User: Fold this.
Amino acid sequence: MRSIKLGTFSPSVLLSVAAATGALVEARLEVTEVPAKTSAHQFEDLFEGRLDAAFTNPDNVLAYRCVPGNPLGRTGDVRILGAVDRGLGLGLFTAPGVAGPARGGRLGVDVPGSGFAFIAFELLARAGLVRDTDYEVVSLGSTPKRARALVEGTVDTTVLNAGNDLVAEAQGARRVASVTEIGPYAGTVLCATADGIATHADALAALLTVTSAVARQLATGRHREIALTAVTERLGLMGPSAERHLAILTDPAIGLVPDARLKHAELDTVVYLRNRHSRAATPVTAEEALRSGLVDSSLLPEA
Assistant:
């Protein structure tokens, strides 16, 4: 059995289905999910070898590979190995009782220099609000933490996805905008450092094969009851909310990626958001990032 310590931001229904169907055992894989406190902590753990790989936002990989001014103040040879999902309902939400984004509010983010924060800045800008002028930015860490803060009224707006959105909606939060309004977007990718790839190449390739295969099976209606059980157990969603999340998982525009391929247009959106909303001195281009080795397709399953 091959073991992988995998950093995650939200509990993975995809991995739960892979485990429950026996796909992980068949691939001789044991995956231990390690919840991330923040993106900076996740990448520090990757660089220090405390994690073997991570499910993370592609902007994080871009930042910790190509942007020296990232929250850690260091870069490393970290690479995107494949795409996992296209956002899973990723969007901007307001707290219960808050009708929409308004001046004087508080925006909850992981850290201000992260991909989800850039989405929030962009969607709020499109609503006519200026960062640090019309609203306060508050660093709160991972998505589940931000969902709790939103429901409790600690912040007025935040970006949620991956079931956290539906948990918050069930408690009165309101979805006011979607990342799809900005452009094609990859919400989660599998990444690892060069050392992690060298040590765990076979296991990481197997993980990509398993996750993409399970994504295809879910898209065709297989494992429906297993998936609904996983949604309930991992995310606490039941009834219509669980059904809604399963529909999101299988939606080709915002759901799981059945071939693990990251599209160039999705990377373009990530780069656009970083260049528009990051306070780094030097812009990054998609072409420069790709030439640097940002995307490593060597472990992708055959098309």
In short: Residues 147 and 168 are 6 Å apart (CA to CA).
